[in-house]
Amino acid sequence: MSKLNKPESEEVPTNTTAPASSLDDAADEVKLAVDLIYLFESNKIEVEVALAAIEIVKADLMSKLGKLAG
Region annotation Disordered: residue ranges (predicted)? Predict the structure, then answer.
């Protein structure tokens, strides 16, 4: 048994390294989506409000994209 009186089978190995998060290799849009979801959830934004805001942002970005193309 260890110092914490845990059986050897319950001890957590201390010499392992955590694998890199799959988010580290994710596309930029996935990383941004995760950040936005975190922002909405951590600020307790209602789903309907978040979706309405996303539609406003989408319209703004589409307008800017149209201006760049034209």
Answer: 1-22
Closest CA to 32 of 12, 66, 61, 67: 61
CA distance readout (Å), 4 to 9, 10, 12, 13, 14:
13, 10, 12, 14, 14
pLDDT tops 50 at residue 2: no
User: Is there a contact between 35 and 24 (Cβ–Cβ < 8 Å)?
Assistant: no
Residue type at position 28: D
Q: Would the pTM count as exceeding 0.85? A: no
Neighbours of 26 (CB within 10 A): 13
**Residue-range domain boundaries for the chain:** 21-69
> Which DSSP symbol is given to 15?
S
